[in-house]
Write a structure and sequence with these properties.
Number of helices: 14
Helix content: 25-40%
Structural class: alpha+beta
Radius of gyration: 21 Å
C-alpha cells in the first residue's frame, strides 16, 4: 500500500489520536491570531524550542508572543517517545573528528544541560508530567557493546562520568528481555509525558505574561526588514526580533530554511494497561530504554503501566499505511510475553533531520533567529537551544556564536531525491547492525 503524505498541519488543528492526546491533563482554549499586533519578540512554534525560548525571555522581562500553526505541542514535542536522552544525534566522537577537540569540549559541557532545564521547569512551575529518572542504552551485539564502551570513555574525557556499563545479567535486572547482550545506564537521563510537559510549559509562559496564538499557520516571514514581520492567514505580528522554531513543520514558509533539514517520520504504539505485576516484570527499573542500532527502537512504561513503544524511520516525512503492523514485530521480539497484546493507540510524527545530525542555530537577516534539526534528539536539545537563543537575544552571544558557526551541508540529491539518498545510505548501517560489525 502507498504511504500517506504527512501534512504540515491538521486541517482543524486537532491532535493526532495518540495516547498522549488522550491522557493530557491540560485542555486549552486556543485563540487564533487576527489582525495586526506588535511585540518585542515573536516566536514561531509552540513546541519545546519555542516555549523554552519564550520562558527564558519572559523570565528576563521581555514581551513575547508565540504563534503556533495548530495547537501547543501538536508536532514532535507532543508526539515523541518522552525520553530525556543526553547528547546529540551526532556523538561526541563525530563532533571531535569533524570539528575538533575545542568544539567537542564545548558541546560536551552542554549536552546534559537540556535535562537540567527540563527538571528546573517541572519543579519551579509545578508541571505534572510523570517525570522519572534513568535512561538505558541496550546492545544487541558485541559490536554495540564496544560502541557503548567507547561512548563511556569519551564522555569521561569531557568530564561526564554518569554512565555505567551493564553486562547481560545486570541489564536483565533493569530490562527483562533476552534480546540484549548488555547495555549502559545513564543516571541523568529520564522520561516523562511529553505533551503534558509542553502544555505545562505553555501555562508557565502565560503565567509570566506571555501570549500564545494557536491555529494560526505562518504563511511567510519578512525577515529582511529591520523590524521583521510574521504573516498568518488571519493576521500579522510585527516584532523587534523574530525566532523561528517550526522545525519539521515550518514547511515552505521560510524558503531559506527549507533545504537545511528534511522531515523524517517515526512511529509509536501504546498497549492497553498491563497491570502492575506484568509491567514491573518487563521493566523492573521503570526507566526508559533505547537500543543502539542505526534504526532504533525505544520504549518505556507510562504512568498507568502501558508499554509505549516507538521506532521506524521514513525519510521525507510520510506515514506508514499500518503503524501497528510495522512496530508489533519489534515489540514482540523484545518482549515475547506481549505477543498479541491489544494496542490502544498508534500514531506517527515528524522530526527534522540535518545532514550532519547536528542541530542548527543561526540568523537569517539581522533580527531573525532560528533553531532546528535536532535529528531525533530534540527533547533535551530543544530546551538547551531555547536557553541559548534567549541568552543571545538578551546580549550574550558567546554560546550562540559557537553553534551558529558550525558548518551545515545540504542533503545530496536536493529536495527531490534527498529521501531516496538517505534511505539507501541507511541500508548500509542496518546491514552492519544485522551482522554485528
Amino acid at each position: 500500500m502507498m504511504a500517506r503524505k504527512q501534512k504540515s498541519y491538521a486541517g482543524d488543528g486537532s491532535y493526532p489520536a495518540s495516547y498522549y492526546a488522550a491522557s493530557r491533563n491540560i485542555i486549552r482554549n486556543p485563540v487564533k491570531l487576527e489582525g495586526r499586533i506588535e511585540t518585542d519578540i515573536c516566536i514561531v512554534g509552540a513546541g519545546y524550542s519555542g516555549l523554552s525560548t519564550a520562558i527564558h525571555l519572559a523570565e528576563k522581562g521581555y514581551k513575547v508572543t508565540v504563534v503556533e500553526g495548530a495547537q501547543v505541542g501538536w508536532g514532535a514535542s507532543g508526539r515523541n517517545g518522552g525520553q530525556i536522552v543526553n547528547g546529540l544525534n551526532a556523538g561526541l566522537s563525530t563532533i571531535e573528528r569533524r570539528y575538533g577537540e575545542d568544539a567537542a569540549r564545548f558541546i560536551g559541557g552542554l549536552v546534559q544541560e537540556g535535562g537540567r532545564i527540563i527538571r528546573r521547569l517541572v519543579s519551579q512551575y509545578r508541571i505534572d508530567c510523570d517525570l522519572k529518572p534513568g535512561n538505558i542504552y541496550a546492545a544487541y551485539t558485541g559490536a554495540h557493546m564496544k560502541e557503548l564502551e567507547a561512548k563511556q570513555a569519551l564522555w569521561r574525557k569531557y568530564g561526564m562520568d554518569d554512565h555505567q556499563l551493564l553486562d547481560r545479567e545486570a541489564l536483565r535486572k533493569l530490562v527483562n528481555s533476552e534480546a540484549y547482550c548488555g547495555g549502559m545506564l545513564d543516571t541523568t537521563g529520564g522520561h516523562m509525558h511529553p505533551l503534558n510537559l509542553v502544555l505545562g510549559e505553555a501555562r508557565a509562559f502565560e503565567n509570566l505574561g506571555g501570549v500564545i496564538y494557536e491555529m494560526s499557520p505562518v504563511t511567510r516571514v519578512d525577515h529582511e526588514s529591520a523590524r521583521p514581520t510574521v504573516y498568518t492567514d488571519g493576521g500579522e505580528v510585527s516584532a523587534r526580533i523574530v525566532v523561528l522554531c517550526g522545525n519539521a513543520y515550518l514547511g515552505d514558509a521560510v524558503p531559506k530554511l527549507a533545504t537545511r533539514v528534511m522531515p523524517v517520520s517515526t512511529q509509536m504504539i501504546t498497549t492497553v494497561p498491563l497491570g502492575e505485576e506484568l509491567a514491573h516484570s518487563l521493566i523492573p527499573s521503570d526507566m526508559c530504554v533505547e537500543d543502539v542500532r542505526y534504526i532504533l527502537d525505544y520504549f518505556r512504561l507510562s504512568a498507568d503501566k502501558r508499554m509505549i513503544f516507538g521506532g521506524g524511520t521514513v525519510y521525507g516525512g510520510t506515514d506508514p499505511a499500518d503503524v501497528v503492523a510495522k512496530l508489533r514485530p519489534n515489540l514482540e521480539k523484545v518482549f515475547p510475553r506481549l505477543k498479541g497484546v491489544k494496542i490502544d493507540y498508534a500514531w506517527s510524527g515528524n522530526f527534522a533531520l540535518s545532514f550532519t545530525r547536528v542541530p542548527q542555530m543561526g540568523r537569517i537577516g539581522s533580527n531573525t533567529y532560528f533553531a532546528h534539526g535536532y535529528s531525533g534528539h530534540g527533547v533535551t536539545g530543544s530546551h538547551l537551544f531555547g536557553r541559548t537563543l534567549a541568552e543571545a537575544i538578551d546580549g550574550d552571544v558567546s554560546r550562540f556564536d559557537v553553534f551558529a558557526k558550525l558548518p551545515w551541508y545540504p542533503f545530496p540529491g536536493g529536495r527531490m531525491f534527498r529521501a531516496q539518498y538517505s534511505t539507501v545510505g541507511s541500508w548500509w548501517y542496518m546491514l552492519k547492525d544485522a551482522v554485528g560489525w
